[in-house]
Amino acid sequence: MSTTRFTLVCVLVGLVVYIFGHLLGIGYLFFAGYTILQFIALASAWNILGGYCGYVNFGSAAFFALGAYSTVFFYKFNPLPIPLLIIIAAVVSGIVGLGMGYLTLRLRGAFFAIATLAMAVVLQTLVVNWSYVGGSRGAYIVRTDTIDIGGYTIEYIEYLFLLMMAVAILSIVISRTIARTQLGFGFATIRDDELAAEASGVPTLRLKLIATTISGALMGMAGAPFPYYIGYLQPASAFGLEYGVNSIAMPIIGGTTSWVGPLIGAILLGSLQQIATVTISSAVNLLIVGLLLVGFVVIAPNGLVGLVQDRLRTRRSGK
User: Fold this and answer.
1) Domain locations in the chain as residue ranges
2) Structure pTM?
3) I want to staple 266 with a disulfide (CB 3.0 to 4.6 A). Which of 43, 110, 210, 219 is the partner?
4) CA trace torsion 265, 270, 272, 273 (10° rounding)
5) Beta-bridge partner residues of 154
6) Burial class of residue 130 in the structure, from the number of CB atoms within 10 Å of its CB (0-12 exposed, 13-18 middle, 19+ buried)
7) Cα separation of 287 and 180, whole Å?
8) Are the CB atoms for 192 and 37 separated by under 8 Å?
9) Residue of 169, 188, 182 lying closest to 51 (CA atoms)
10) Three-state secondary structure call for residue 171
11) Sign (positive/negative) of CA torsion 217, 223, 228, 234?
């Protein structure tokens, strides 16, 4: 299927989901759906560097927070439409991703992972001490309950849901396109054997910088609408552990070698966490993630996609 057709299919599926939720008239579905779509975008973005290239990034929350705080900055400086804020967040987070990659991508393995975690800590410290965006006290974002789009009035949470759906679709399309092009093949050579790729003339550093830039930009886009969703943004919520953990766990559970894996992992884990939030408490969300992550590492180290592929190979070889 071509990229254009695939994009159209994703848009049609998204519109069907939106219309179904709108007809049901249950507002919480859009709140929960927004979170799941947010995780789809984050997981797909993380997988570009962590799955395709094999460089584990613990700084996902930092890029997410960059997008969120760029929105807070312009909300106080000169309020702009959220779609424009999403584009600005992509530029800011992409530039930071490029800079982070240039400084850290000469490191490998655990050293690179620790460096990305250190970057997140540094950025959080800067935000905590930046009073203009609220500092440690946080910042309030005031929004209306409804919004007019082309003469049609919808709830604001539905508007945010549609925006996050667009970001999630863009993340999926970009991830799928990369996997099917020479860029994706270059990423795969880095993941399989970086030294051999360098010896073969593959520009590994350039490819890794492209991966960090795209990954960071998409994570920033996922964070841009968040202040309007939550209403009150503070460093603890923007740099929350759940974003860093989920963005890693979801691709691992779904499968990191394909664009489908992060999508499946995000829908599965995101839905379970929303159900747990309603029925038990949001405090058990990370417990659920931890238990599933340990279970899949033991039972299906290649994720659900890898498990299905292994079963299919076994059946074919048996025939």
Assistant:
1) 3-248
2) 0.91
3) 43
4) 140
5) 147
6) middle
7) 35
8) no
9) 188
10) helix
11) negative
DSSP state of 145: S
Q: What 8-state DSSP symbol labels residue 137?
A: G
- List the one residue out of 300, 285, 311, 310 whose CA is nearest residue 253: 300
- Cβ atoms of 300 and 261 closer than 8 Å: no
Identity at 60, one-letter amino acid code: S
Q: Tens-digit pLDDT profile for the chain (319 aa)?
A: 788 888 999 999 988 988 888 888 777 888 889 999 999 999 999 999 988 988 888 888 899 999 999 999 998 888 889 999 999 999 999 999 998 888 887 777 788 888 888 888 889 999 998 888 888 888 888 888 888 877 788 888 889 999 999 999 999 999 999 988 888 899 889 888 888 888 888 888 889 999 999 999 999 999 999 999 988 888 888 888 888 888 888 998 888 888 888 999 899 888 888 888 888 777 788 788 888 888 887 887 788 888 887 777 777 776 5
Q: What are phi and psi of 262, to 5 degrees?
A: -60, -35
CA dist 67 and 225 (Å) reads 8
Alpha-carbon span 91 to 107, nearest angstrom = 25
Q: Which amino acid is at 66?
A: L
**253-257-259-260 Cα dihedral, nearest 10 degrees:** -50
Rounded to the nearest 5°, which phi and psi values hold at 153?
Answer: -95, 125
C-alpha 172/C-alpha 69 separation (Å) is 24
Strand partners, 152: 149
CATH class of 3-248: mainly alpha
